[in-house]
Amino acid sequence: MKTRMKGWVLVAVMTTLFGASSLAGAQDAAVLKDLTAVIALHGQSCGEVVSAVRQGENDYLASCKDGNRYRVFTNAQGRVVVQKQ
Amino acid sequence: MTNIRTDDQVRTTAAVTSIVLILASGAGCMRATAPTPTVAVAPSIAPAPPPVASAPPPMAPAAAPAAPPPETDATPPTSPPAVDLVPPADAVPPVVDAPTPDQRATRVPSRAPAPSPSPEQRSTPRLSPSRAAAPPPTQSPKKPEAPVKVAPSPTLDFTSLEARLRATKAIGVLTKLSLKNQIDDLLHEFKLFHQGRGPALSTLRERYDLLLMKILSLLQNDDAGLASDVSASREAIWAILVDPAKFARIN
Q1: Contact B175 A72 (CB under 8 A)
Q2: CA-CA distance, B236 to B153, in Å (whole number)?
Q3: Which residues of B touch A42 (CB under 8 A)?
Q4: Could you tell me how many helices (H) and strands (E) chain A has, helices first?
Q5: Is B162 helix (H, G, I), strand (E, B) or coil?
Q6: Residues of B in contact with A80 (CB under 8 A)
Q7: Does any CB of chain B come closer than 8 Å to the CB of residue A30?
Q8: Quick one: average pLDDT of B229-248?
């Protein structure tokens, strides 16, 4: 019985861990897609954002597939700014 | 004795049969080899002529009344080479064509495109009537489109569209903010335009179309319904933007 209980606990823990990581991955994917769209809307060359580092609220440092890096943030006037790094 | 006689009979029959077979195969070979050389075309035509020889005469009268003059002028020079080409290729088909001699007039043009794609002159007149028939239906549906465009304008629910755009998950937060910035910029330019000191209307229309295209491209994959509604409201929104009174009401 103890062995079975341990097995079930292990399964539950693994499920929770993998579920959380996949949710985070989905959120990351949404952010990357969002950043890709913003950079494209601003007419900057990027192709696709492959990774991003969050620096603050609505403030990201995005790395593009073509090697370009952009800082995407909202300024004090509430405008979205895409700055090439 | 009877056995000997039967053997002789069998031998004789076999010899006769073999001779007949040899002759038949020889005749078959003659027919098969006939098409390739140009000189042999004449003998090959000999069996074929019934359909071929009879075809040209009906062609001329049939083409004269039915087809336009340029066709009749083109067919006589082209028909001799076509006749030379057709028989070898249709060495066997003539037998099939024989049961349908009633459609000789139509068969000649039908043959031309089918066996050899090279004679384009014959295929083009064939297509031309079909093309001539095609344009009218294409032109006719264009006319009913005009009232269709007029219809969506009264059904525009501006606030609902705005709310749906705000709520949709197809566009990310930053993208929405960026789009809002661009929409605000365009609205500002419209405001200047109505004050008489903005860009030309054609420029505004171009910017409006581009902005709408951006929104549609963002929506079409994940929120196709909203994309279609926005697309359907394109002219209605433009009508509001262009009309000073309606534009003032929005602001």
Answers
A1: no
A2: 5
A3: 178
A4: 1, 4
A5: helix
A6: 174, 177-178, 181
A7: yes
A8: 90
